[in-house]
Structures are given as structure tokens and as C-alpha cells.
Amino acid sequence: xxxxxxxxxxxxxxxxxxxxxxxxxxxxxxxxxxxxxxxxxxxxxxxxxxxxxxxxxxxxxxxxxxxxxxxxxxxxxxxxxxxxxxxxxxxxxxxxxxxxxxx
Length: 103
Known about the structure:
4 strands
């Protein structure tokens, strides 16, 4: 998937390791989320990495879990690297992912 500023790619071990290390070094209060990122197949989530197209830098992470209960709900988790927060990257990424789910 792609937006104006982002490439949205399936999570891979290299991406996961980068984010996992980043959280442990610079954003330790979110360490619990780092466990999910560390394993791309964890918790039966569909995992995506957001990459800033022009800088080729990882911006964040989106995880989707389909709940197979009577309400058929979807749970979304996400994480944004600090220097990319409050710039609309996650809104842009989530909008694209949600549109893809609806198709």
C-alpha cells in the first residue's frame, strides 16, 4: 500500500528488530508494545510497517487483529517513532489500511 508520504509494507524481521531496539533505547515506557513488534507473527495480528518514502525511514507500526466473536470487531494498535509524532503520518497510514480492510 502507498500514500502520498508513506509506503505501508508487511512487517519483516529486519523492520521489527529496528523498532524493537528503538523502543528499548529511546521510548522505554512503551516496552510492552515492543514485544509485539519483535515478532511479526505475534498475537495473530496482521502487522504493517510505515516507511517515509522520500527519506526511506521507518515512521511507525500498525497492527490489526480480527476478533472472531459475535460482533466481528477489529482491533488496531499502532506506534509512531517520537520524531514523527504529531505530523499526521499515523492518520495517513491508518486511513489507507482501513480503506484496504473495507475492500
